[in-house]
């Protein structure tokens, strides 16, 4: 449900939650939403502003969160915008793991962004391609012009452990990505390597390879060696998130400004549309270079 906070007008989302079905979601969400953890810039877990008990239903709660938008809508304009997306999400999952919490469903649908700066005039909560008044399209800027913050959401399958409990062995609960090799070969597994696989497989599918229903994106081949290691069939051979972040930082530092400013092209783009997108992109690119707008759109 969409809502607005009376005190300051911030646009919100209410998420209904059954405690009996998802007993850990509220606890984990509030854990990351409580200072000092909530103030850590590496924390990319969606803030939970409040948890409201539904009257006359002890099992049902409403989680109050900021209004967010799908992480890839609008589409990425430059390679640098995609690189900043990788940085934030790698950092966010690393932060969860360092606090001994496995997400267990770090898939495409559970990564969102705060798009308020991208849409100065706002957008409709249920038809996000329309403006708030449904009188036309929602106008937006690029992430290079207005850097955004990405969030991991949906902690319904997440679990928190003590340091002494690691590595844990959990019964398999399949989330949005059911291609995890352990799911087909075992009855229980360590959810932390599963997180690494799931996030790596998301990048492999939506940025590198695509499939019959998903477009691939050009310009991100430099990610393939890392993604290949993240998605190895043997979980013991996958890097930890600490290692992923370290390796990615080395990759990022090796990318030139020219590469970071290059245009992202979808495999399904027609040559006609690609031509006009390219012209618009070069206009923006020249302006950004002249104005010294950074090619990596890092939020303040």
Keywords:
single chain, 300 residues, alpha+beta, Transferase(Phosphotransferase), domain 1, four-stranded antiparallel beta sheet, globular
Structure overview:
The chain is of the alpha+beta class and 300 residues long. It has a domain at 68-260: Transferase(Phosphotransferase), domain 1 (Orthogonal Bundle). The protein has eight helices and eleven strands. The two termini are 29 Å apart.
CATH architecture of the domain at 68-260: Orthogonal Bundle
User: How can the largest sheet be summarized?
Assistant: 4 strands, antiparallel
**Silhouette:** globular
Name given to the CATH homologous superfamily of the domain at 68-260: Transferase(Phosphotransferase) domain 1
Q: Can you give the mean pLDDT?
A: 93
Q: How many individual β-strands?
A: 11
The main sheet orders its strands as: 1-2-4-3
Any idea of the CATH topology of the domain at 68-260?
Transferase(Phosphotransferase), domain 1
- Structural class from helices and strands? alpha+beta
Q: Stretches where pLDDT falls below 50 for ≥5 residues?
A: none
Strand residues, percent: 5-15%
Rg over CA atoms: 20 Å
For the record, give the distance between the C-alpha atoms at the N and C termini, rounded to a whole number. 29 Å
Order of helices and strands: EEHEEEHEEEEEHEHHHHH
- How large is the count of helical segments? 8
Indicate the percent of residues in helices.
25-40%
